[in-house]
Backbone:
């Protein structure tokens, strides 16, 4: 696959995240009203406006007037394909629709981005083997690093949809219960080991009742975003047994504002790894289920330049989103349009490919040094974290844009909580 040229000139630059090949969907505003749009180069095509003007008809009913992509997702894969084909023709170089569409272009620098869909529910998984080995080694020792179920089950926990925020939203350091290994009793106060997790989020675009296969699950996925699962490690260490993370993961989960569709990622499919223990038949792969997506994490202290602290790839996962979604449905759990599935922290094999500070600083024992000369074991107030991701084609890239968040100080405790 090579670059598909657009009449929007900025989309044809090899370094653009949003060429015609991509066409990711988002929600933006310029005057307070949320509108659905598609990114093309450094512009957004206002699809709510295009539809309202009668220049686009999907399924015979308006689907783009609610400031969220849920209506389009609910309309199903035939509508997804029809919209993508329409846009690929209308935005292509030489299209006779250029004059129709041009009045509906908005510069991205003039737009505020919002959550692209109403998050129905949020589940987060634990599916990178390197990450599980690193964290397990720190928490339980090398011999017990991988839980006995890990090579058989895509492990996850049910998170909170209310914690999901769009890129650019500040993140307030949480207060919570803390108890270090040498403390006799717990105390309540600001998290001292606040961290990030570099993940991909898969967006469920079709509902299901009862168990669906891995192939069906793959077809139900509408698209992907970058996801930062902010994590309070000191709270997590005290609370996680026996029911898993709770408050440590409830502060915020940031996602990038553009949904990169499964269709745009098709040329970049890659296989899950060799299995050390055969998967049960229901989890076996009907084909390549992962994607070759380069990922990186930047950390910028307040008033300083950014340092890229980790580089890895989505192909490092042990379980794909389709396998996670299939497993999620096995109990009979109904899935809804707009469910968000976090991949789990993505870590490679090298030290600088680890997707959390917990791993990069090895639990705080080996602080990392930033380009500014400062060191970090965990996040400090004022730090800005930026996730980036892109699949690299020949002369073009399928970019995700950025997933950004800045850490703000914890709120002062009320007297009754001290
Ligand atoms: Ca996570």
Residues:
């Amino acid at each position: 696959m090579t670059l598909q040229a657009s009449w929007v000139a900025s989309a044809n630059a090899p370094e653009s995240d949003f060429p015609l090949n991509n066409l990711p969907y988002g929600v933006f505003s310029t005057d307070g009203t949320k509108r659905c749009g598609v990114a093309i180069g450094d512009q957004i095509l206002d699809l709510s406006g295009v539809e309202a003007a009668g220049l686009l008809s999907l399924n015979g009913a308006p689907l783009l007037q609610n400031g969220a992509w849920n209506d389009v997702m609910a309309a199903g894969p035939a509508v997804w394909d029809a919209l993508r084909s329409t846009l690929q023709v209308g935005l292509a170089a030489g299209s006779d629709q250029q004059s129709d569409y041009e009045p509906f272009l908005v510069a991205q620098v003039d737009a505020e981005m919002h959550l692209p869909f109403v998050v129905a529910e949020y589940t987060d998984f634990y599916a990178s083997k390197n990450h599980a080995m690193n964290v397990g080694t720190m928490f339980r020792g090398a011999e017990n690093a991988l839980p006995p179920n890990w090579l058989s089950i895509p492990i996850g926990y049910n998170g909170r949809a209310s914690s999901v925020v769009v890129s650019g939203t500040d993140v307030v350091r949480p207060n919570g219960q803390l108890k270090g290994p040498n403390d006799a009793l717990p105390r309540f106060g600001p998290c001292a080991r606040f961290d990030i997790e570099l993940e991909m989020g898969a967006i469920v675009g079709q509902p299901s009742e009862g168990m669906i296969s891995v192939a069906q699950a793959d077809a139900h996925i509408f698209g992907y975003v970058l996801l930062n699962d902010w994590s309070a490690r000191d709270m997590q260490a005290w609370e996680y047994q026996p029911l898993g993370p709770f408050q440590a993961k409830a502060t915020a989960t940031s996602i990038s504002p553009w949904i990169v569709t499964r269709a745009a990622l098709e040329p970049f499919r890659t296989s899950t790894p060799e299995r050390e223990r055969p998967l049960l038949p229901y989890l076996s792969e009907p084909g390549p289920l992962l994607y070759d997506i380069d990922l990186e994490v930047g950390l910028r202290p307040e008033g300083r330049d950014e340092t890229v602290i980790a580089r890895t790839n989505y192909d490092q996962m042990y379980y794909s989103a389709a396998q996670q979604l299939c497993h999620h449905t096995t109990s009979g759990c109904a899935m809804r349009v707009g469910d968000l599935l976090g991949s789990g922290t993505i870590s490679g094999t090298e030290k600088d490919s680890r997707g959390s500070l917990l791993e990069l600083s090895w639990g705080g024992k080996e602080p990392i040094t930033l380009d500014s000369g400062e060191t970090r074991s965990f996040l400090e107030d004022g730090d800005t974290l930026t996730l980036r991701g892109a699949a690299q084609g020949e002369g073009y890239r399928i970019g995700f844009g950025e997933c950004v968040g800045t850490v703000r100080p914890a709120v002062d405790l009320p007297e009754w909580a001290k």
